[in-house]
Amino acid sequence: MNDDAPDLRARNKQATREAISHAALRLAIEQGPHGLALVRVHDIATAAGVSSRTYNNYFSSRAEAICAFQADQAARVGQALRARPAGEPLDQAVIAAVVELYTDPEPDKAGLRMIMSTPELEGEALRAFTMAEGPLAEAIAARTGTDPERDLFPAVTAAAVAAAIRVAGRRWLEPGNTESFAAILRGALSCVVPAAPPGRPS
Amino acid sequence: MNDDAPDLRARNKQATREAISHAALRLAIEQGPHGLALVRVHDIATAAGVSSRTYNNYFSSRAEAICAFQADQAARVGQALRARPAGEPLDQAVIAAVVELYTDPEPDKAGLRMIMSTPELEGEALRAFTMAEGPLAEAIAARTGTDPERDLFPAVTAAAVAAAIRVAGRRWLEPGNTESFAAILRGALSCVVPAAPPGRPS
DNA sequence: CCACAACTTGCGCGACACGCACATAGTGCG
DNA sequence: CGCACTATGTGCGTGTCGCGCAAGTTGTGG
Question: A10: which residues sit within 8 A by CB, 6+ positions away?
Fold first, then answer.
């Protein structure tokens, strides 16, 4: 329960994990969406300073390694929502949490474009989003006082939020786009997140 | 534009495609979620009555073959929505179209459970849903008179609909569930699809 | 200082995705 | 009816990949 004092082992582990993930994404971007097959596992491992075998100890596929940063970010959505003040309406809280989380560092356009335009990577990224829906649904349930076991609202809304983030990302990196990512995110999220669950006015 | 008179070639192609897909799903279900690695490509091909090489001419991965039926079904959502009467409000039209499409034959619980509880298959299935979002978004845009190029509403709603279908499926095959799939679908969809786009009352 | 656990690495195996060339079956024209 | 033509199925070879196994190496705790 206490991650504040990770021992040397844990920190090294996390460091190599990030090194591999970062190297994988960088090499993938270099080759472009059509050259993913040219990014050999051996190259990723070498760029990260580990052996090919170690790479496989951390990730079981290229897609998983390349999309790891997205998975980590998506996994923080639930926690970000819980950090919002309790009195805030659901829609405002969700929008604020997501916008904050996804614009802290301006996202890497090349990385997003790479992932969204490569079928294999897209599947993995979608899986990462789906993984994050559980915690997000619980956070929504906690905020709205609904029971995630009996009520569909939390899970459906969580999935819709993830979907809206995806669509916003796609729209953001469209060629002719001029709006900021934050603005698009707000617009997309406001389409699907109500101020309160149905059947519970105000 | 005319698929009513497919020549012999096209029909044979479709037949073998379905044979492979069907065999793949059946074998996967037999082995269960934890034995996906035991389903060899050679087994699938043999069960479908073709060679391993031919299998690879139709699908480039096991996941793709196993999830093909879901992909085909999801691809029909847009067309199903367009088939609804033009005067119907968006929410009713979407719910009716989806319920009809997803309960015509009662879905195979074993197949859904297999896909949803196997990470690799889940990614592929999610990708299939995502592929269907484009046509669905266009159908929604056509029905609501919005411009999919400028307005986020169609794309976001389409993605939310796909997400709701996913959540409904997950809820439906939960152990203690007693409700019908149609009822769960209605509940999930009503959480995310409004009667009309925002800013355009009635 | 030493035993123990965690992590990394090299090796080898089975499987897979795919390019290539050839065989076969459906199609259209004279 | 027969003949070129194209689409599809198949066998084979190649380069990776994912992972089990058994060391070697590094951090941890008594």
Answer: none
Q: What is the DSSP letter of B107?
A: P
Contact A169, A116 (CB under 8 A): yes
Cβ-count burial of B197 within 10 angstroms (0-12 exposed, 13-18 middle, 19+ buried)?
Answer: buried
Token pair in block for residue B179: 């409700």
Q: Is residue B133 within 8 Å of B155, Cβ to Cβ? A: yes
Tens place of pLDDT for every residue, chain A, 202 residues?
444 557 878 999 999 999 999 999 999 999 988 889 999 999 999 999 999 999 999 999 999 999 999 999 999 999 999 999 999 999 999 999 999 999 999 899 999 999 999 999 999 999 999 999 999 999 999 999 999 999 999 999 999 999 999 999 999 999 999 999 999 999 999 999 999 888 744 4
Per CB-CB distance under 8 Å, the chain B contacts of A160 are 159-160, 163-164, 191-192
> How far does the CA of A125 sit from the C1' of C8, in Å?
28
Per the CB < 8 A criterion, the answer to whether B54 and B45 are in contact is yes
B15: phi then psi, degrees, rounded to nearest 5: -65, -50
Q: Scan residues 138-197 of chain B and list those with Cβ within 7 Å of strand D.
A: none
Q: Name A82's Cβ contacts closer than 8 Å, sequence gap at least 6.
A: A139, A142, A143
